[in-house]
Amino acid sequence: MTGRGQRMLKRTVRRSRQLSAESIAKDLQTWCGLQMSPTTVRRDLHGMGFHGRAAASKPSITSAMQSVGCRGVKHATTGL
């Protein structure tokens, strides 16, 4: 892949990290005229330091809820 193609690929992924490799390959084909397979897109992104998709956000758990959840686990393991 050329330097221009790598820059376009990196810019595309930075804009929207939830895109699939197939959609990124189609976008590069329409914008730059680059013929790339989704496997090549994944391989190049892995080499650039992009590993998988962004993590899902998790609900906030307060310390009070943590202690309640752990209390149930302790009772189940100790039998009390």
UniProtKB/TrEMBL annotation:
Start and end residues of each Transposase Tc1-like domain: 6-65
Top-level taxon of origin: Eukaryota
Pfam families, per the entry: HTH_Tnp_Tc3_2
Protein's name in the database: Transposase Tc1-like domain-containing protein
Organism field: Staurois parvus
